[in-house]
Specification:
The complex is a heterotrimer of chains A (about 290), B (about 240) and C (about 350).
Chain A lengths: L1 H31 L6 H19 L3 H22 L10 H22 L15 E4 L2 E4 H23 L1 H11 L1 H6 L4 H26 L7 H15 L4 H21 L4 H15 L11
Antiparallel strand pairs in A: 1-2
Helix pairs in contact in A: 1-5, 1-8, 1-9, 1-10, 2-3, 2-4, 2-8, 2-9, 3-8, 5-6, 5-8, 6-8, 9-10, 9-11, 10-11
Chain B lengths: L5 E6 L2 E2 L2 E2 L4 E5 L4 E6 L5 H9 L9 E3 L2 E2 L5 H7 L1 E4 L11 H8 L10 H7 L1 H5 L10 H13 L5 E5 L7 H9 L1 H5 L4 E6 L2 H7 L2 E6 L2 E7 L5 H9 L4
Parallel strand pairs in B: 5-10, 5-11, 8-9, 9-10
Antiparallel strand pairs in B: 1-4, 1-6, 2-3, 6-7, 11-12
Helix pairs in contact in B: 3-6
Chain C lengths: L3 E4 L3 H18 L1 H4 L2 H26 L8 H16 L5 H23 L4 H21 L9 E2 L2 H5 L5 H28 L1 H11 L1 H6 L4 H27 L1 E2 L1 H4 L2 H15 L5 H17 L4 H17 L3 H10 L9 E4 H4 L1
Antiparallel strand pairs in C: 1-4, 2-3
Helix pairs in contact in C: 3-8, 3-11, 3-13, 3-14, 4-5, 4-6, 4-11, 5-11, 8-9, 8-11, 13-14, 13-16, 14-16
Classes of the chains: A mainly alpha (about 290), B alpha/beta (about 240), C mainly alpha (about 350).
């Protein structure tokens, strides 16, 4: 019995990481209807950026966040204004195919720069530390990851609903033309949204790298997890994204408990089941 | 004659292959209230889109405050001092009433209009400031849309069909606020299908017909028959 | 008054027919003039050409942008192995049956993933492919995660001699490519094809015309799934070895195919042909550069998508007003007809 409780707990905590994969994806879709196929590769790219930072300065990966987050945000702004803004329009093909091309470029650039060997970010003793709660042993790192995920989503929620930047995001999302008339430069607003999304991606990448080993090929899988969390939670809802991540994480750890080969498969099946029963996700955004 | 605030010089606006305006010339002096009337499809909305920058033109075709802005992006034109009350209100549904107003103020221009001033003009908006914008009635939405444009403290404000789809009593209450809006010398262009309404608040009128200016003059000087002719194209 | 007529044929199309015929005869005779390595390369080219035509039909005409076609490539490959090893079927029968099974399987899949719109549909197809990969990795009778080889007896059932087998698999690949191109062409010329083009041009207008969009898209999805599985079967009949990672590789069976179509010209019939030729030319010259080659390919695809969305064929067509596969109707005046 206790092992099942433990599996569910681990799944919930893992869900925090998946919610971080999903939050950036959800944010840019919400603001500019863009689905970034390279999102997973950008997460992995952030993990490698974290690796280089920790090795160069000999610092803890959590300190590397202070380098990786601003770098990724800046990259996001440049990427959006330099490339992705040119793909946005009525036709869905250009953004899809351009980000797909970007995904292949990133993946192979990482292969070229870092080889295919699995790497890991070492965070020291915190990795093995655990808390014992009523006979249940919970790792400090997964707990910390989950807490960061909740904080990030609360932060995004605050930016979206309580700041002028967030007002701009929502206005542009509602009606690009009228937002432009109100003095918002949509190219800049989209750039800011991508910067914010990649800042979240940077956090996700570092936490991923501390948790497990990574190599350049795993981006596609992270994109899929993020996407599944978005759809399970319901498009356009940030807290729904966290719920989606948790459901995905629990499905995976329970599946893995039954048979290790079933871990990923049961996550996908949970996603397909939600799609079959509640195609709009469990917590779709209700427009006022 | 003083330097015009806005001048349109042989404006030919197009949507792709379709030409909507043909050589429109127009001069608006600072402080004027000008009505633009015309039938459906005469090019009134195209004119609004051209002035506000949603429809790109050649640089010299639209000159505002002495600057050729025909090829400027809409947000730059907004910062220079043009605000639009769009046809159909078009408030942001994800934003509350107050957020819609604040967004209007985001261009960062200083002036007499603030949240308090707008609430003073339309007290009902203050009562409903935290509600979602699409929970308002049509008339209240129109007030919010006007308030949103005023928040930009523009030098030129464009009203596009503000009485469309509203009950006469509501239209009257909105037009009652009009003198307060232009009292401090704000320049306004009013596009209306409701001719008498437009003429009652304006000092000058342009009539558009099939993309061309068919009549222009002081409101006091033009008579009904001339307008009818220019409006429907009945004149020989 | 001058006489005029509406026609689809153009002189370029007639010339193309003659050239195509000559090329086909030469290609069919390859076992008598080409070496073993060249035949393998050409077979691979035909199979990529087929995948590209099918993906183009989905993405370029039906607006179904999939990044999960590897699901059906791998499924076809695995069915070839399963049906010959456990069902005792002849490999060709197994491949045809694989296509039918894929068609049946694609209907419930479509009913799920068609709920996702646009780019989310694309990622949904990828999830399905992952489900396929992980599921086949669970089947220990087919080698689980490490895969298995096609037994010698099955291979020998194709033809007794090695050169006989090589000629046969070559002709199968060539025949499949011709069959795919012809069926896509005929489909697009049919009433359904016209409906599809209407959907591509405007979904709203098409539904206004009474076209059942969902059904039209479903039909395309089912047909391309079946044909993709058949091509998958042929691919692994060439390779003789299968594993989950090779069978359901997103890079091999989707990324390359997308690049081929984008570079050649999406939404045109000629695009995939030109794209396949360019892709193989690039690959044969740059393959030594490995990852750099893939980065260049991705870069070329991005640049083309941004600057010339109709691809290389679009450029050629605009310059020369050519159409090799006559789809569009043209008005011919009497004088020009003479």
């Amino acid at each position: 019995m206790i092992e099942w409780v433990s599996a569910v707990t681990q799944g919930v905590l893992l869900g925090g990481l998946y919610a971080l994969f999903a939050a950036g994806l959800s944010l840019i879709f919400g603001v500019m209807r863009l689905v970034n196929i390279a999102h997973g590769d950008l997460i992995v790219f952030a993990a490698y950026l974290g690796l280089s930072t920790t090795m160069t300065f000999g610092i803890n990966p959590f300190l590397a966040l202070f380098v990786v987050v601003p770098v990724m945000a800046g990259l996001g702004y440049i990427l959006q204004r330099g490339l992705l803004n040119r793909t946005l329009g009525e036709d869905i093909l250009p953004p899809l195919l351009v980000t797909f091309g970007l995904s292949v470029i990133l993946q192979n650039a990482l292969l070229e720069g870092y080889t295919a060997d699995p790497r890991k970010l070492s965070a020291g003793t915190i990795e093995t530390a655990s808390l014992s709660v009523g006979g249940l042993s919970v790792g400090v790192l997964p707990l910390l990851t989950f807490a960061i995920a909740v904080a990030v989503i609360a932060g995004l929620q605050w930016v979206f609903y309580s700041t002028s930047a967030g007002r701009g995001f929502r206005a542009v999302s509602d009606n690009q033309e009228i937002a432009q008339i109100m003095g918002l430069n949509k190219a800049h607003v989209f750039g800011l949204a991508m910067a914010l999304a990649l800042a979240v991606t940077a956090i996700a990448g570092i936490l991923l790298g501390v948790r497990t080993s990574f190599d350049p090929s795993i981006g596609g899988g992270r994109l899929i997890f993020g996407f599944e969390a978005v759809i399970i939670g319901g498009l356009g809802s940030l807290w729904g994204t966290l719920a989606g991540g948790i459901i995905l994480g629990v499905a995976q750890t329970i599946g893995g408990k039954i048979d290790p080969g079933w871990q990923l498969l049961s996550g996908h099946i949970a996603f397909l089941a939600v799609l079959a029963i509640r195609p709009n996700g469990l917590f779709p955004r209700v427009d006022h | 004659m003083p330097e015009p605030l806005l001048s349109l010089n042989a404006l030919d606006a197009r949507y792709g292959d379709f030409q909507a305006l043909y050589g429109v010339d127009m001069q608006i002096i600072s402080g004027e209230v000008v009505a633009i009337i015309g039938a459906n499809g005469a090019g009134k909305s195209t004119l609004m889109r051209s002035i506000s920058g949603l429809l790109p033109n050649e640089s010299e075709q639209v000159v505002f405050k002495g600057r050729p802005v025909g090829d400027w992006r809409a947000d730059r034109i907004a910062k220079l001092g043009v605000a639009l009350v769009p046809e159909g209100r078009q408030l942001f549904p994800s934003l509350s009433v107050e957020e819609n107003l604040k967004l209007g103020g985001a261009v960062g221009r200083k002036g007499q209009w603030s949240l308090d001033a707008v609430y003073g003009l339309f007290p009902v908006l203050k009562e409903r400031r935290h509600q979602a914008s699409n929970a308002l009635s049509g008339g209240q939405q129109q007030m919010a849309a006007i308030g949103r444009a005023l928040m930009a403290n523009p030098e030129l404000i464009l009203f596009d069909e503000i009485s469309l789809g509203l009950a006469p009593v509501v239209i009257r209450s909105i037009y009652e606020a009009f003198p307060d809006i232009v009292r401090q010398g704000m320049t306004a262009i009013i596009v209306e299908q409701d001719i008498s309404r437009a003429l009652s608040v304006s000092s000058r009128v342009y009539c558009l017909q099939e993309g061309r200016v068919s009549l222009t003059g002081r409101t006091d000087d033009v008579n009904r028959d001339e307008i009818t002719a220019a409006y429907f194209g009945l004149a020989a | 008054m001058s006489d005029s007529a509406v026609t689809r044929t153009t002189s370029a199309a007639r010339a193309a027919t003659i050239v195509a015929f000559v090329v086909l005869v030469a290609a069919a005779a390859a076992p008598w003039w080409a070496g073993r390595a060249d035949m393998r390369l050409m077979s691979e080219l035909y199979l990529y050409l087929s995948l590209a035509c099918l993906w183009n039909l989905m993405a370029g005409y039906a607006g179904l942008v999939s990044v999960g076609q590897q699901a059906f490539v791998g499924f076809g490959g695995y069915m070839l192995f399963a049906l010959t090893i456990f069902g005792g079927l002849h490999p060709i029968a197994a491949i045809v049956l694989a296509g039918l099974l894929a068609a049946c399987l694609s209907v419930p899949i479509a009913s799920l993933i068609f709920r996702l719109k646009g780019a989310y549909f694309a990622i949904g197809t990828w999830v399905v492919a992952e489900v396929f990969r992980l599921s086949f990795a669970q089947i220990s009778a087919l080698g689980g995660g490490s895969g298995s080889s096609l037994p010698v007896s099955v291979v020998k059932s194709l033809a007794a001699s090695r050169s006989g087998r090589e000629s046969l698999t070559y002709w199968l690949a060539l025949g499949a490519a011709i069959a795919v191109i012809l069926s896509v062409y005929l489909f697009l010329r049919s009433r359904k094809g016209l409906a599809l083009t209407a959907i591509r041009d405007s979904e709203l207008a098409a539904s206004g015309l009474g076209i059942d969009i969902w059904r039209a898209k479903l039909e395309v999805y089912v047909v391309t799934s079946a044909l993709t599985a058949i091509i998958g079967g042929l691919i692994f009949l060439q390779k003789l070895r299968i594993s989950p990672d090779a069978a359901f590789s997103v890079n091999d069976w989707t990324a390359f195919v997308i690049f081929i179509v984008v570079i050649g010209g999406i939404g045109t019939l000629e695009g995939p042909i030109i794209g396949t030729l360019i892709f193989f030319a690039l690959r044969e010259t740059l393959a030594d550069f490995g990852t750099i080659y893939l980065m260049i390919l991705g870069l070329v695809a991005i640049v083309i998508m941004l600057t010339t969305p109709k691809g290389v064929w679009g450029l050629i067509r605009d310059r020369l007003d050519l159409e090799l596969f006559p789809l569009a109707y043209r008005v011919q005046l009497d004088e020009t007809r003479k």
